[in-house]
From TrEMBL, chain A:
Keywords: ATP-binding, Cell membrane, Membrane, Nucleotide-binding, Transport
Protein's membrane topology: Peripheral membrane protein
Name of the protein in question: ABC transporter ATP-binding protein
Major localization class: membrane
TrEMBL record, chain B:
PROSITE patterns recorded: ABC_TM1 (PS50928)
Name assigned to this protein: ABC transporter permease
Keyword terms of this UniProt record: Cell membrane, Membrane, Transmembrane, Transmembrane helix, Transport
Main location per the UniProt record: membrane
GO cellular component: plasma membrane
Membrane topology: Multi-pass membrane protein
Signal peptide positions (record): none
One Gene Ontology biological process: transmembrane transport
Organism: Ligilactobacillus ubinensis
Length: 347, 309
């Protein structure tokens, strides 16, 4: 892969609430290389969105960054002032939001909305900016773009609106595009179109994507690498093949087990609920829901164990002294496929 | 659009007709007569006067005559001031009232929008609390109290502006403030509530993600969307202010129409009551039409719905 453009190190974020300090992000580290797509998956409340908002400097007022670094081209974004962040947002790092129905200003023509970042960051005058907006509008596949550039958001369908949101994000050719569940609010056929569009534009614009989702099905076709988040921590990360076909963390097993595939006969849910981050448990936060939990899981937090050069997982099951266990049926099936894949690679 | 307008105008005429009818009969139900010194008049005198003003005819006939005259542009003659025509009475007095009302509305809107916006941007801080307290005071202190305070401190003690009377622009400053504090408080409250909602919406987050400055976000995105609920309020409020405020006009001795209206009710001056009521109603239906058009300009979603009609 290319040059490393983003390096998040030991990020810790708390939220002040009336009940106390919620430790939303606990020691999260990941990186992003030029041109690649990193998917961050996890259930609601696992800290996916908070992580990306901290990249943008868009954290809520009651959020407090406790520690860590966000290095973007070796500059720490956490040390930048609001003014400096304004010059990065929308220009170097752009974002696509979850609900296209509400993320466009209802009283402004979409052409102007797309042109705004250009006028702000590239100091382009309005006419030129609108001309460029028209170009990008064609690029994201809005038909009859010359006419529609003067329309208002309510005159577009949900899928079209998400295309417009993508156009806004990409109009300054950002280096990093953060997509926060960009297809969750769309129906499945539109979902596929939007994902195809994102992949197509990623090549044209040469941007790196951080893709937030709870839908593993979407990840498979999109991502190069996957990081699995649970209770404010990354528990496993690796290439998309490694996560899908050779997962090591019981939480990743649970996620894959609850996702339908063509071969699956029954779907299993992960029992229980995520821990309360007001008072995070000692040890492995997944221990309480983990059928394979051992005594040490409740006492000591597992470090990352190396599976391959690109694949790490934080579970005591990978410790050399851990007993051999058999993962769920579905995972065993996947691991067999992975062995075949690896075997093919070696030939 | 033309069809829509035509339909609206038809409804307006119908509304005005209904207002005229209802007011006319309600007015006739009021006790008393137009004569202030009736006990000194003989029955013959009263009879002559009644015949003179057509008050001896049955009420329905008076009504038909009034509507007929009104349609021909004749609002009748006032009973109060040596037989002045109502149209003259209104036209000579509406000027100061309209100017004062308009100025008060502009004053109220301008500062109300600023105070409301600042409060919303600094939501839940001492600035917000201060702005809320100011608008509560502005809403709850009667404007005649404020008027007297202004007269005493600004005009009498400091001597910055004339204390009363009507003339150059400087005469209008104090009554404008006294009259404008009401709409100021109301506007500030509306804008604050609206903008707090808007600032929490997804499209504001997107605007922030674009890297726009705080001011840019408020000015280009939040303000217009927060104005939508305010539009409904502004129209009728403006009409009410422009057609005269009895209290303020009295305190500052402004020759406006508000005072005249109250007087005409107290003296059963039927043609003047009808004339001022009709003026107010015409203003109101016009402003409501205008409001709907302005609504469409501010909020494009409504514009389209109107066209489809």
């Amino acid at each position: 892969m290319g040059e490393r453009i983003l390096d998040v190190k030991n990020l810790e974020i708390d939220f002040h609430t009336y009940a106390g300090e919620v430790k939303a992000i606990r020691d999260v580290s990941f990186h992003l290389d030029k041109g690649e797509t990193l998917a961050i998956v996890g259930e609601s409340g696992s800290g996916k969105s908070v992580t990306t908002k901290s990249l943008m400097g868009l954290l809520a007022n009651n959020a407090l960054v406790k520690g860590g670094q966000i290095l973007f081209h070796d500059e720490d974004l956490l040390k930048k002032t609001e003014k400096e962040m304004q010059n990065i947002r929308g220009k170097d790092i752009a974002m696509i939001f979850q609900d296209p129905m509400t993320s466009l200003d209802p009283t402004m023509k979409i052409g102007r909305q797309i042109a705004e970042p250009l006028m702000k960051h590239k100091k382009v005058e309005k006419k030129k900016a609108l001309a460029q907006a028209l170009e990008i509008l064609k690029l994201v596949g809005i038909t009859d773009a010359e006419k529609r550039i003067n329309d208002y958001p309510h005159q577009f369908s949900g899928g079209q609106r998400q295309r417009i949101v993508i156009a806004i994000a990409l109009v300054c050719y950002p280096e990093i595009l953060i997509a926060d569940e960009p297809t969750t609010a769309l129906d499945v056929t539109i979902q596929a179109q939007i994902l195809d569009l994102m992949k197509e534009l990623q090549e044209k614009i040469e941007t790196s994507i951080i893709f937030i989702t709870h839908d593993l099905g979407v990840v498979a076709g999109m991502a190069d690498r996957v990081a699995v988040m649970y209770a404010g921590q990354i528990v496993e990360y690796g290439s998309v093949d490694e996560i899908f076909y050779n997962p090591k963390h019981p939480y990743t097993w649970g996620l894959l087990n609850s996702m339908p595939t063509l071969d699956s006969t029954n779907l299993e849910a992960i029992p229980g609920t995520p821990p309360d981050l007001l008072d995070p448990p000692v040890g492995d936060p997944f221990a309480a829901r983990n059928p394979y939990a051992m005594k040490i899981d409740a006492e000591k937090q597992p470090p990352f164990f190396k599976v391959s050069d690109t694949h790490y997982a934080a579970t005591w099951l990978l410790h050399p002294d851990a007993p051999k266990i058999t993962p769920p049926e579905e995972i065993v099936r996947r691991q067999k496929l992975f062995e075949q894949l690896e075997a093919k690679k070696e030939i | 659009m033309r069809k829509y307008l035509l339909k609206r105008i038809l409804y307006m005429v119908l509304t005005l007709f209904l207002v005229a009818t209802i007011t006319f009969f309600l007015m006739k139900l009021m006790p008393g007569t137009p004569y202030s010194n009736q006990e000194k008049m003989t029955t013959a005198q009263i009879k002559i006067m009644n015949e003179q003003y057509g008050l001896n005819k049955p009420v329905w006939e008076q009504y038909v005559i009034y509507i007929f005259d009104m349609l021909h542009g004749d609002l009748g003659t006032s009973f109060q001031y040596s037989n002045q025509a109502v149209s003259y009475l209104i036209s000579s007095r509406i000027g100061p009232s309209a100017q004062l009302g308009f100025q008060a509305m502009v004053f109220g809107l301008f500062f109300g929008i600023i105070i409301g916006s600042v409060a919303a941007i600094n939501h839940n801080t001492w600035i917000d609390t201060t702005a809320t307290v100011v608008s509560i005071i502005g809403k709850s202190v009667p404007n005649f109290v404020l008027a007297v305070l202004l007269q005493y401190y600004i005009a009498l003690k400091l001597g910055w502006f004339p204390i009363a009377d009507w003339g150059s622009f400087s005469y209008t400053v104090l009554p404008t403030i006294a009259l404008g504090v009401g709409p100021l408080a109301e506007t500030a409250r509306f804008i604050r509530t609206g903008m707090v909602d808007v600032l929490n919406s997804d499209y504001i987050e997107l605007a922030r993600a674009k890297g726009l400055s705080k001011f840019g976000i408020v000015y280009h995105h939040a303000l217009r969307n927060s104005l939508i609920p305010l539009v409904t309020l502004i129209g009728p409020y403006t009409v009410a202010l422009m057609t005269g405020s009895m209290v303020i006009e009295n305190i500052f001795s402004i020759p406006g129409i508000g005072e005249q209206f109250v007087k005409s009710i107290l003296t059963n001056d039927y043609p003047t009551i009808m004339g001022v009521t009709m003026l107010f109603s015409v203003g109101l239906v016009l402003i409501i039409l205008l409001t709907d058009i302005v609504y469409g300009i501010i909020d494009p979603r409504i514009r389209l719905a109107g066209n489809g009609d």
